[in-house]
Amino acid sequence: MTLHALTLHRRLAAERRDPLTGAQRRAAFERRAQRLLARHRQDSLLCLVDLDHFKGLNDTHGHAAGDAALAATGERLARWAGPHGVVGRLGGDAFAVATRKDTLTGEDTIGQHLQALVDALHEPVPTEAGPVAAPRRSAPPSPTTSASTPCPP
Q: How much is the pTM?
């Protein structure tokens, strides 16, 4: 590969990824997620993740803490999705993740896999002001309901 081709390839890849979170930008996510869901109709999951009270986090702890929360969310979603999944930042504090159920480890049910996602998203995020963590909701997620993830106050 020539230097010019390598540079062009890197620029194109950068256009598809959000630099803060590492997630695909909306259009790139939609293309990859549609392919994944079409190929694996019976064994795929699509989750929407919204960080509740994100503006409050930025207002209280500053934009560096908000950026840390966004970056941690992107990394945690990518880890949860596994090598066959795709994570997208839809805008602001909204994310989506599409993955195949066969990326689940062991005998996990969908509910257990979703609970693992919620648990990962509630892990404290290290910031310059100290770790911040999202408050827990009383009801666990269910495969048939949507849930948003609260942002730390």
A: 0.78
